[in-house]
Write a structure and sequence with these properties.
There is one protein chain. By secondary structure, the chain is an alpha/beta fold. The protein has a single domain, classed as SPOUT methyltransferase, trefoil knot domain (Alpha/beta knot, 3-Layer(aba) Sandwich), CATH 3.40.1280. The protein contains five helices and five strands. The chain has a five-stranded parallel sheet with strand order 2-1-4-3-5. β3, α3 and β4 form a beta-alpha-beta unit. α1 packs parallel to α5. The longest helix has 18 residues. It is globular, with a radius of gyration of 15 Å.
């Protein structure tokens, strides 16, 4: 199975890059793995809801263009289902048995994901009811994926 993460925004912090690289090497021992970084849109100070929606839609179009058509899509979103590590590993085993060729995890930008991206998801995943920086979520997700 191919495993990919599509994320909005670039990592700037060297310590995050090093940790993510460490976990990516572990994942690559078991799966074809890639991280696709997409540019984020600049959000003006005091942006209106309409401007924020437009930004999410722009980022969402970029995300959707990178998802393979046969992929099982898992967006990370606050309305998603929380799993324990053990439950997540069991869900992963079920996906493997389904012979799905590709699984795509999606991490949005600072404003979140567009409705179109969330609706493309076959399983919506949440790590917490709290909001985390998307760069940190990338590290948390990749660490959990390294355990699969």
């Amino acid at each position: 199975m191919k495993l990919q993460i599509i994320c909005v925004g670039k990592l700037k912090e060297d310590y995050l890059k090093k940790l993510i690289s460490h976990y990516a090497k572990e994942i690559q021992k078991k799966y074809a793995f890639e991280i696709i970084e997409l540019p984020d849109e600049k959000t003006p100070d005091n942006a209106s809801k309409k401007e924020e929606l437009k930004i999410k839609e722009t980022e969402g179009k970029r995300i959707l263009s990178k998802i393979p058509p046969d992929s099982f899509v898992i967006p990370l979103c606050i309305e998603g289902k929380p799993f324990s590590t053990k439950e997540f590993q069991q869900k992963w085993q079920n996906l493997l048995q389904s012979n799905i060729p590709c699984t795509t995890f999606i991490i949005g930008g600072s404003l979140g994901l567009s409705k179109e991206v969330v609706s493309r998801g076959k399983l919506k995943l949440s790590f917490s009811k709290m909001t985390f920086p998307h760069q940190l979520m990338r590290l948390i997700l990749i660490e959990q994926l390294s355990l699969l």
